[in-house]
Amino acid sequence: MWKKSWPWVFLILVLSIFSFRSLLRPGYFPMHDDMQAMRVLQIDKCIKDGQIPCRWVPDMGYGYGYPQFIYYSPLPYYVMEIFHLGGLQIVDSVKAGIILGFILSGLTMYLFGRSLWGNLGGVVSAIFYVFAPYHASDIYTRGAMGEFWALVFLPLIFWAIYEFIQTEKQKYIVFLALSTGGLLITHNITSVAFFPMVGLWSLFLLIRYQKVWLWKRLLLSFLWGAGFAGFFLLPVIFEKRFVHVETMISGYFNYLAHFVSLKQLFFFSHWGYGSSELGSYDDLSFFIGTMQWVFSVIAIVIAFILRKKEKIFPIVVFLFLTGLAATFMTHQRSSFIWSKIAILSYFQFPWRFLTIITFTTSILSGYVVFNIKNKKTGVLLCTFMICLVLLLNGLYFRPREWYNIGDKEKFSGSLWEKELTISIYDYLPIYAKFPPDRQAPVKPTVTEGVADFPSYTKGSNWQKGEVIVSSEKAKIVLPLYYFPGFKVWVDGRAIKTIDYNNDLGLISFYLENGSHEVYTKLLRTPVRIIGDCLSLASILLLFFVIFRKKLSFLRQT
Predict the structure, then answer these.
(1) Which parts pass through the membrane (predicted)?
(2) With 80 as the cut, is the pLDDT of residue 436 above it?
(3) Which residue has the higher pLDDT, 372 or 74?
(4) Relative to the CA of 439, which of 262, 343, 358, 491 has its CA 20 to 30 Å away?
(5) 12: Cβ contacts below 8 Å, ≥ 6 apart
(6) CA gyration radius for the chain?
(7) Is 281 helix (H, G, I), strand (E, B) or coil?
(8) What are the domain boundaries of the chain?
(9) What is the CATH number of domain 445-524?
(10) Is beta strand 506-522 parallel, antiparallel or unpaired with respect to 451-458?
(11) Are 235 and 476 in contact (CB under 8 A)?
(12) Average pLDDT over residues 508-530
C-alpha cells in the first residue's frame, strides 16, 4: 500500500512548494508576532547552557528574563533549533520551520484522507489543507507559529484513532500518544478547542463500529500522550498563578471584540495584513476559502444522496457537523457559550476556531472524488479541484514585505531593543507591580550601603559574580525577576529568605562587609520535577514498547 502512495506523496511535496516559494531567498519578513527568531535564540541559549527543558529565558522582559516556556508551547522552537544547530542562521531556521510545517501538514492530512477516501481523495484533502487561506494568514500575517504547527497534528490524531478502531493494531496507540503529546506542547489553545472534538470522534467511532470495549486503550493512549507533555503541562496548569495573565484576556484581547461575520467567513472581501478589530471591518482576513466551503457543501449533499449505499455516510455527517459547530463558535451568536465557559476567554479571538474549520472543510473536500468509479474521471476531477484551489488561493501565500537581513541585523540596534520589549506584559511574574521602563543593568545594583562587582556573569537561568562590600552591610538587587524556584547562594551557603518586595519584584538580599561569591539559579519546583519525571517515564515506555516489538519480530524470524 505504501509503495502505491509514493507518487502521491511526491505530488504533495512538489505542490507544497507553492505555499513557501517566497521564503526560498535570503532575508526575513515582518509579522504580527515578530518574536519567532527571538524565541529560537532563547531556546538556543538554554540548550547550550544545559537548561533542558528550557523554562526561563534570559533576554526577554527587557533583559530581566522571564518564564516564557513554562507557559508558551515550545515544540516548534525546538524543531527550529535543530536547524540552527545544523548550521543555519536563526532567521533561516525560522523559515525552515515554516517550510517543514507546510510539508508535514499536507502529509498528515493525506494520511488521514487516504484512510477515508483513498489516494485521490487524500491528495485533494492534503492540498486543500495546505492552501487554505487561514493557513496563509496564520504564518504570513499573524506569525502564529504554534497555531500553524498545530495543523500538523490534527489529522494525525484523527487518523490514529480511526485506524486503531478499525484494525485494533497497537502501533496506532503509539501514534496517537505521540501526536497527542505533540499537539499539547505545540499550541495549548488549539488543544483546548480540539480535544472535545477528539473525544466525540472517539466515541462516535467506538459506537459506529461496535467496539466500545476499546475505550480503555484509547484513554490510556491519551494519558500516555499527556505524559509526554508532562514537563510542560503540569507547570502551565499549576503555576499559572505566579504570572500576570489578566492582560491576556482584557482590553484588546477580550474575545467580545473579535467575533466575525458570515460575510467575512464565506465571501471574500479583503485580504489584508493588518489586525483584528471590533466589528466587521478588520484588516485581517477570516476567509474560509471558496473552494473549501463549497466542496464541503457538495460533499454533504453527495453523502445524503448516497446515504443508503455508503457505509461512510455517518463519518461525512460527523465531520460536517463538527465544522458547522466550529463556524458557530466564531460568530457572536455563540457568545452565551463563551460567557459560560471561563477557559474560552484565553482564546482571545473566537476566529481561532478557523483552525478547526480549515481541518474539517479540507478533509470533507476529499470525499467529493471518493465516489467517482471511473479512474480517469476521478483523476480529472482531482486535477481540476487542485488547480482551482492553487489558482484561487496561491497568491495569499507570501509576506507583505521582505527585509534583506540576517541574524546580525535582527539581534542588534533598534530591532534588538524591540525584541527585548515586545509582549513584555506576557508572563510577567506577579511579584512585579509593573514592567520595567529600561533595560536591565549588566551588574546588580546597590540600594543600601556600598558595594562593588569586580566580575559578574549571566547564564540562561543563573547569574553569578564576586561582590565586595566596603560598608558594614549592603543591600544587593540582582537584575533578575524573582520567581518560584530561584535560590541564592552566598559563599556556597544558601540564603534562607529572598526579598523581592520592590516595584519590579527583583531578587534582593543583604551582604555583610567583605568579599563574597554570589550565585543564583532557577531550580525545579515539585510540580516541575513531577512533570519532568512523567515525560521521562513516557519516553522510556516508548523505547520499551519499540524494543519489545523488535524483539518479538526477531524471535518470529
Answers:
(1) 82-104, 116-136, 148-165, 172-198, 218-238, 250-272, 284-305, 312-329, 349-370, 377-397, 529-547
(2) yes
(3) 74
(4) 491
(5) 106, 107, 110, 123, 126, 127, 130
(6) 26
(7) coil
(8) 445-524
(9) 2.60.420
(10) unpaired
(11) no
(12) 96
